[in-house]
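pls design
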């Protein structure tokens, strides 16, 4: 039986793409830039807010990046739950894994991560939420996973990381835990599969069936 289930947030537990894209294009409009397609913006998600803003603006210049982050944060804070929803089957899977320990490890900063989990009514399932502005290095560095396992006395063989991106798969692999790639998220399916997760599922319903079959 697996004792620890770890989840990514954006594109894994919750479909946040529309609210992220709207905040990014609001930022671009305020900075006299034309909008980008939602799909292009979501392709930049995964390495934290600074990288998202830099990619959306096409610059690494500090002053412009800081201005973009300020605009994005102000807008997103007011609109982060306008369109965001849980993916189908998430609540059922969280309930199934309730006897285990569950945590969220995301590169999305707080307070947004916790606010989204609270707004969607699932924050109570998690004993820990590690966001992108925590004391730990961002994924794909496995530092946060290793710290959780160490504190809880859980071995790598007893843990699972569920995510939608190659970044998540790399993080889990570097921590030595079982990795599950879900294809309903932001990443290209072939790119996700190329990262070679231990298991690939199209939905949380499939994940739940796999877990039951494997005796998790």
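designed seq:
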């Amino acid at each position: 039986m697996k004792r620890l289930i770890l989840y990514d947030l954006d594109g894994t537990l919750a479909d946040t793409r529309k609210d992220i894209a709207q905040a990014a294009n609001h930022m671009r409009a305020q900075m006299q830039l034309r909008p980008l397609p939602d799909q292009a913006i979501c392709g930049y998600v995964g390495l934290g807010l600074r990288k998202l803003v830099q990619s959306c603006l096409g610059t690494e210049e500090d002053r412009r990046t800081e201005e973009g982050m300020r605009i994005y944060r102000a807008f997103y804070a007011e609109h982060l739950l306008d369109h965001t929803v849980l993916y189908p089957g998430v609540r059922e899977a969280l309930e199934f894994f309730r006897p285990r320990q569950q945590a969220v490890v995301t590169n999305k900063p707080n307070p947004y991560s916790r606010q989204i989990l609270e707004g969607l009514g699932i924050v109570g399932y998690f004993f820990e939420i590690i966001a992108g502005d925590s004391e730990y290095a961002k994924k794909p560095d496995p530092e946060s996973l290793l710290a959780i396992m160490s504190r809880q006395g859980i071995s790598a063989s007893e843990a699972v990381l569920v995510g939608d991106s190659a970044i998540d798969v790399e993080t889990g692999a570097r921590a030595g835990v079982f990795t599950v790639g879900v294809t309903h998220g932001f990443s290209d399916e072939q790119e996700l599969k190329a990262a070679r997760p231990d298991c690939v599922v199209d939905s949380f319903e499939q994940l739940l069936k796999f877990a039951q079959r494997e005796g998790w």
